[in-house]
Design goal:
Strand order of the largest sheet: 15-16-17-19-18
Low-confidence stretches: none
CATH topology of the largest domain: Transcription Regulator spoIIAA
Structural class: alpha/beta
Radius of gyration: 22 Å
Number of strands: 19
CATH architecture of the largest domain: 2-Layer Sandwich
Mean pLDDT: 96
Bound molecules: S-adenosyl-L-homocysteine, iron/sulfur cluster
Distance between the termini: 37 Å
Number of domains: 4
Helix content: 25-40%
Shape: globular
Strand content: 15-25%
Number of helices: 14
Length: 429
């Protein structure tokens, strides 16, 4: 999401004549687009600000700006304590040119106003990916849920859905430029719900998916993130109907314990979650399912944690993003529940679930041996540049011999062997 926001920022600044450089030593303006979701993301930025300030020492006049969620969360604290020149929240990017023009060594600039309308719908992002194959498209901003651990609703504001016409236009535009895959982005794509101003038209996520899938059968469609409480049968059935809608759902469970889920305010219980997994698998048996999980949330007992481990065994995810709880100031959990699981226990639980997931990933990959997949070639494999890599529809990474294929082609491959992270394949002629 931040990569895509950065692309929007480049587009806004390019219109004003600013040019992008890949080298910090050349930059007159250094902007860091930041994430506040866990403390370690913020800690990394503090380190970066020190590095930026070294540039400023060498080249007085360089402007240093913090944009994104940390700007929104810390506001003028950043100006007071860290000598940055610019602080701009996620809804303020249209004002960046004006803010930048007003900056002098003694006058920093700040805009952290959140909006109920801003979707940057009319802005064509300047793509910063290197391979020209896969593009992100934001379909909504903000979040209306109140998961008790999460800072996102505070930093990104209320949920708003972008006009579907602008989304389809953007998908057509990237396809005409040679892209073969779009990923539709939102904190909770299943609650996408656009309404025309007079209320006469509305489009939900399943309908939007269909509209984007119809851009071209050669354009793959992915999306993230699905919310277990909101993912509808209509979405699942729409996925099944279109070959070019990739068969992969990222469905964060967060915890396998009902007591924790309730405290997290996720609005579903374990049984509901498993019901959604079963529905997905009954309609699309080959659908990849991945997840996010938080261990060591406030008051998590060993039994709660074991229930999460058990949920992982039950679903056997293809892969997972795993975190230990990081208290975020201002959230409901930080106000209501003590962050009472010590760091050793958090780390141990995290390591245990990572080890379990590694086993599950391997098992899930072993099941693919002998199967044939259509992959979209992303480029040379990182480990072996003589091989190509690309993802299957279910999001698994495949590595295979080039055989004349180039980046952006579709290739048919057959899985020969695997690691827990990669399918090692042969080309099918
Ligand atoms: N909107 C998405 C995820 C947004 S944040 C959703 O609802 O699933 C991405 C992931 O970061 C979350 O799924 C969660 O697992 C993790 N996360 C969010 N807040 C966290 C916190 N305070 N501590 C640790 N992990 C957190
Ligand atoms: Fe955060 Fe929950 Fe919204 Fe995801 S759905 S962004 S976890 S509040």
């Amino acid at each position: 999401m931040n990569v895509n926001d950065t692309e929007v920022i480049f587009s806004i600044l390019a219109k004003e004549g600013y040019e992008r450089t890949e080298s910090m030593d050349e930059a007159d303006i250094i902007l860091a687009n930041t994430c506040s979701v866990r403390d370690n993301a913020e800690q990394r930025i503090w380190g970066r600000i020190e590095v930026f300030n070294l540039q400023k020492k060498e080249r007085p006049g360089v402007i240093i700006g913090i944009v994104g969620c940390m700007a929104e969360r810390l506001k003028d604290k950043l100006l007071d304590t860290h000598k940055v020149d610019l602080v701009a929240g996620p809804d303020s990017y249209r004002t960046l040119p004006k803010l930048l023009k007003g900056i002098t060594p003694d006058t920093p600039a700040i805009n952290v106003m959140l909006s109920h309308e801003e979707t940057y719908g009319d802005i064509t992002p300047v793509r910063i990916d290197k391979n020209g194959v896969s593009a992100f498209i934001s379909i909504m901003r903000g979040c209306n849920n109140v998961c008790s651990y999460c800072v996102v609703p505070y930093t990104r504001g209320a949920e708003r859905s972008r006009d579907p016409k602008t989304i389809v236009r953007e998908a057509c535009d990237v396809f005409s430029k040679g892209y073969k895959e779009v990923t539709l982005l939102g904190q909770n794509v299943d609650s996408y719900n656009w309404k025309s101003e007079d209320g006469s038209e509305s489009v939900n996520f399943a309908q939007l998916l269909e509209m984007v899938a119809q851009v071209s059968p050669e354009l793959r469609v992915r999306f993230s993130t699905s919310h277990p409480k909101d993912i509808s049968d209509e979405v699942i059935e729409t996925m099944a109907r279109y070959e070019n809608i990739c068969k992969h759902i990222h469905l964060p469970i967060q915890s396998g314990s009902d007591a924790m889920l309730k405290k997290m305010r996720r609005s579903y219980d374990r049984e509901w979650y498993m019901g959604r997994v079963n529905k997905i698998r009954s309609v699309m048996p080959d659908c990849g399912i991945t997840t996010d999980v938080i261990v060591g949330f406030c008051g998590e007992t060993e039994e709660d944690f074991q229930m999460t481990m058990d949920a992982f065994r039950t679903v056997c995810y293809d892969s997972a993003f795993m975190f230990y709880y990081s208290e975020r100031p201002g959230t409901l959990a930080s106000r209501k529940y003590p962050d009472d699981i010590d760091i050793e226990t958090k780390t141990r639980r995290l390591n245990e679930i990572i080890a379990l997931q590694n086993e599950c990933s391997r098992k899930s990959n072993e099941k693919e041996i002998g199967k044939t997949f259509k992959v979209l070639v992303e480029g040379p494999s990182k480990k072996d540049p003589d091989q190509l890599c690309g993802r299957a529809s279910n999001n698994k990474m495949c590595v295979f011999p080039g055989g004349g294929h180039k980046t952006g082609d579709y290739a048919l491959v057959k899985v020969r062997e695997c690691t827990s992270a990669t399918l090692i394949c042969d080309l099918v002629q």
